[in-house]
């Protein structure tokens, strides 16, 4: 029973990281994805903040799933999410005002992030706390990976640094467009194209393997 439970939890966790990645598969949460990923630090910070809110809110929603009336479930979910977002807002202010200023209003906008509300409504409200938490953590980690993938590319090309460390020396000419809004769309499009190519390549390999079998 323990092995089956562990396998099930692992599958729930991995769903958000790869099979249903919020950024590269479901293409959700595009507002913070494009806005804050001008650097790897900003990307990780927003990803960790979102993961915390996602995991805590889904755990509480799952625990209350048999108590909250259906008529007020969405309002209840929003209040729960807003409570954890407020906590994250104060925590980031206490840790670093510079980071808080860099993330700006997008910290508060975690409240309306469709990834979090969607997980609460579609998954947490229908599953046990452990399952809901593992799934939420996977979605949060997948979202963080997506943000980091964009933030790293944009920082390297747009500033010549990674996590603030210079990579190419003083003679590097930054691609300024990468730290501007169009750069976010270009990098996101390139990543989506890569994942689409990978998915089609895998389908073709499976089809060829089936034919040979």
Beta-strand percent range: under 5%
Output the strand order for the largest sheet: 1-2
> pLDDT under 50 segments (min length 5)?
none
User: Averaged pLDDT, please?
Assistant: 89
Overall shape: flat
The N- to C-terminal Cα distance equals: 34 Å
User: Looking at the chains present, what oligomeric state does this protein adopt?
Assistant: single chain
Radius of gyration: 19 Å
Helix/strand/pairing category: mainly alpha
Put simply, the count of helices is 8
Write down how many β-strands occur, each being a DSSP E stretch of 2 or more residues.
2
Number of domains: 1
* Helicity level: over 70%
Reading the helices and strands in chain order gives: HHHHHHHEEH
Largest sheet, strands/sense/barrel: 2 strands, antiparallel
Helices and strands, with pairings:
Elements: H1 2-19, H2 30-35, H3 40-63, H4 73-95, H5 97-103, H6 114-122, H7 129-159, E1 161-162, E2 165-166, H8 181-212
Helix pairs in contact: 1-7, 3-4, 3-6, 3-7, 4-6, 7-8
Written overview of the protein:
- It is a single chain.
- By secondary structure, the protein is mainly alpha-helical.
- Helices cover 70% and strands 2% of the residues.
- The chain has one domain.
- It has a two-stranded antiparallel ribbon with strand order 1-2.
Précis, in short:
This protein is an all-alpha fold and 213 residues long.
Highlighted features:
single chain, 213 residues, mainly alpha, two-stranded antiparallel ribbon, 8 helices
């Amino acid at each position: 029973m323990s092995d089956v439970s562990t396998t099930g939890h692992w599958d729930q966790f991995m769903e958000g990281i790869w099979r249903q990645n919020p950024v590269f598969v479901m293409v959700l949460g595009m507002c913070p994805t494009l806005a804050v990923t001008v650097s790897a630090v900003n990307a990780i910070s927003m990803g960790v903040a979102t993961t915390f809110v996602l995991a805590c809110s889904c755990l509480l929603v799952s625990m209350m799933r048999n108590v909250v009336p259906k008529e007020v479930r969405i309002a209840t979910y929003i209040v729960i999410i807003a409570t954890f977002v407020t906590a994250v807002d104060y925590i980031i202010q206490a840790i670093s005002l510079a980071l808080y200023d860099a993330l700006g209003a997008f910290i508060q906008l975690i409240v309306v992030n469709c990834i979090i509300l969607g997980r609460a409504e579609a998954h947490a409200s229908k599953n046990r706390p452990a399952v809901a938490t593992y799934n939420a953590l996977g979605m949060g980690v997948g979202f963080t990976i997506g943000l980091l993938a964009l933030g790293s590319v944009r920082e390297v090309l747009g500033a010549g640094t990674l996590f603030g460390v210079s990579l190419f020396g003083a003679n590097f000419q930054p691609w300024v467009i990468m730290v501007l809004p169009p750069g976010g769309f270009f990098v996101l499009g390139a990543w989506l194209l890569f994942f689409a190519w990978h998915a089609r390549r895998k389908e073709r390999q499976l089809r060829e393997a089936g034919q040979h079998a």
